[in-house]
Specification:
single chain; Jelly Rolls; 2 domains; 22 strands
Length: 328
């Protein structure tokens, strides 16, 4: 699996991603492209238009041209890799595909985005696809902050899922002077760089927007059977001072950690914050199951990373690090 798949999915519905337009969706709707679930197959299931397929599928083209869909990214950013998943499309997948990106301010209409005024930049040239496969492509584009993508398929066919992996590049206004902001939030550019274990729940769930929806929508480790404790390291969206910490164990009722402790460091551009000089941010404090906890930081420090330590193991739904950016 390529390394870029560990980056944030900028097109995720959880971040606000949406397929805003498509020239055709006769057999299967464009919205399915961004569904978070794994594509499924339903044997023998048909609709009035044909075989039910879990993805976006256009009719068979009988004229020149190609089909396309336009995606509004949930979080603007720099794209490092794209996955075009053709799972279950075996005789009806596109032969080739390409991807274009654009930076468009505001919330333009689908009609405007489908017109000729948008300046599209090629991210992926026309490239061969394989059927029933997760087609993975590394991207090396000069587009530093994309807001929209256009998926072009040649000449027609079906795609199950589209994933757009990259680094979030938020609006600079978010970090204006004296404005309180969640420095850990995914939509602001926070990123969980590493953790001790994520057997049951992915580490990036810690910094998703909103509250968790179920127990699987948080970070959860396996049961620890030896000494030690579990941890996650968050790279802040900007170097800043943290005033308040919120830890939510929502839905973790029999598997919340017994306690937690947080540390901070200023690692600069170091690729290995694990070797930094870690100092206490929040002292070891008990945690309650299925509860929201707030900790005031009495002496803010300028940090680039925060380490959440949980004792001895368990699950945390969300982590919020509220403060002010020192770099705008």
């Amino acid at each position: 699996m390529p390394s870029f798949t560990d980056l944030i999915d900028l097109a995720s519905e959880r971040l606000g991603g949406a397929v805003v337009a498509a020239n055709d969706e006769f057999f299967a709707p464009k919205e399915s492209l961004l569904k978070p679930s794994v594509p499924e197959w339903r044997e023998g299931v048909y609709t009035e238009r044909g075989k039910w397929m879990d993805g976006w599928e256009t009719r068979r083209r009988r004229s020149a041209g190609h089909d396309w869909a336009i995606i509004r990214l949930g979080a603007p950013g720099k794209v490092h890799g794209i996955v075009i998943d053709t799972s279950w499309f075996t005789g009806n997948y596109p032969e080739r595909a390409s991807i274009d990106g654009a930076t468009v301010e505001g919330t333009p209409s689908a009609e405007w985005l489908s017109g000729n005024e948008v300046q599209w930049t090629s991210l992926l040239p026309e490239t061969q696809l394989e059927g029933n496969t997760t087609n993975e492509f590394a991207i090396g584009s000069d587009l530093d902050r994309g807001t929209h993508l256009r998926l072009n398929i040649f000449p027609d066919g079906g795609v199950a899922r589209l994933r757009v992996h990259g680094i979030v590049v938020p609006s600079k206004e978010i970090f204006s002077e004296h404005r309180e902001v969640d420095l850990a939030a995914m939509e602001n550019g926070g990123y969980v760089v590493s953790c001790s274990d994520m057997h049951y729940g992915h580490r990036q769930n810690l910094i998703l927007p909103g509250r968790s929806t179920h127990m699987g929508d948080g970070w959860e480790t396996r049961r620890r059977r030896g000494p030690g404790h579990d941890w996650s390291i968050v790279k802040l969206a900007r170097r800043g001072e943290i005033d308040r910490v919120e830890i939510d164990t929502d839905h973790f009722k029999g598997n919340a950690p017994g306690s937690c402790m947080l540390e901070w460091c200023d690692a600069g551009e170091s690729p290995d914050p694990g070797q930094a000089n870690w100092q206490s941010l929040v002292a070891n404090s008990p945690l309650q199951p299925h509860s929201r906890h707030t900790f005031d930081v009495t002496t803010p420090h300028t940090a680039t990373h925060v380490r959440l330590n949980i004792y001895p193991d368990g699950g945390v739904a969300r982590l919020r690090l509220l403060g002010r950016a020192s770099e705008t």
